[in-house]
Specification:
Helices cover 17% and strands 28% of the residues. The protein contains 5 helices and 15 strands. Helix 2 crosses helix 3. It is globular and about 50 Å long.
């Protein structure tokens, strides 16, 4: 029986996540505490791995109840702690010094800062998919790949690429249920997995991207990849949740059931 094997939330967009045993769904469909904060530059643009490589070397710890963030530079010992409410200027000053330009730490408790505002629900992947993709790269462990893919919910007791079946045809959606909550799979996310930091590859190394291409040719014929999910840079399923699911709680161990495919993305999700 497929089930929720782990739940991760990412308090600050683009930074490290934390494992939790349960998570509450907000009215927006997002998980409470996930991507609640984001680092922005003076132009209001997100500071992330795609735009600034310094993000890759920034480590975060976060105490959700106490609202205390710990920041350190990778491979250094000293960690700096800030209360994200009372010491907001201090954390912004530390981050600005680190990046070398002024930044702000902004917060949205209602919706967070999802990559896809049309599908702000938790992102889904199977644990075996993470393990399989990690095995393609030398010196990459499962936790390293998990950190790079940054999915919220991992599904256990299923084979690698189980999540592919959440996409039926290009004009359909698939509904599935986790515990008591019904989700719609909207479109695959495209994580920035080609970062040289994690995989010991030099930028522009052709062998690095060739690994993905070779695996695509090897495995694709045996999978049910259709529609949008057509290459391995897209591995994570984005979701949306009905507003009436607000305040429901997802737990590790909740069973997962695929329900049906529908023809319209505009249909209201119903129980």
């Amino acid at each position: 029986m497929s089930y929720v094997a782990s739940i991760h939330i990412y308090p600050v967009k683009s930074l490290d996540g934390i494992a939790v045993s349960q998570a509450t769904i907000l009215a927006s469909g997002a998980l409470e505490g996930d991507r609640s904060f984001a680092i922005c530059d003076a132009a209001g643009e997100f500071v992330n791995t795609k735009r600034n490589s310094g993000v890759c070397f920034l480590r975060l710890s976060f105490d959700i109840k106490k609202r205390i963030a710990g920041l350190k530079i990778q491979d250094t010992e000293q960690e700096f702690f800030f209360h994200v409410d009372r010491e907001r200027p201090g954390i912004e000053s530390w981050l600005s010094n680190y990046f070398g330009f002024p930044v702000k730490l902004i917060e949205n408790l209602l919706t967070g800062f999802p990559d896809n505002t049309a599908a702000p629900g938790p992102s889904i992947i199977s644990t075996e998919t993470i393990a399989e993709v990690a095995s393609w790269f030398p010196r990459v462990c499962v936790n390293e790949m998990r950190h790079r893919l940054r999915a919220n919910i991992e599904i256990g007791d299923v084979p690698a690429f189980w999540e592919d079946q959440l996409f039926s045809q290009a004009d359909e959606i698939v509904r599935f249920k986790i515990g008591t909550v019904i989700f719609e799979a909207i479109n695959p996310a495209q994580p920035y997995i080609l970062s040289a930091r994690n995989y010991g590859a030099k930028p522009g190394d052709p062998n690095f991207k060739n690994i993905l291409t070779a695996k695509q040719k090897e495995i694709m014929p045996d999978l049910v990849k259709k529609g949008h999910l057509n290459h391995f840079s897209r591995l994570i399923v984005n979701t949306r949740v009905a507003p009436h699911a607000a305040e429901k709680i997802l737990h590790i161990g909740d069973e997962v059931h695929i329900l049906s495919a529908r023809n319209s993305l505009l249909n209201t999700i119903s129980d």
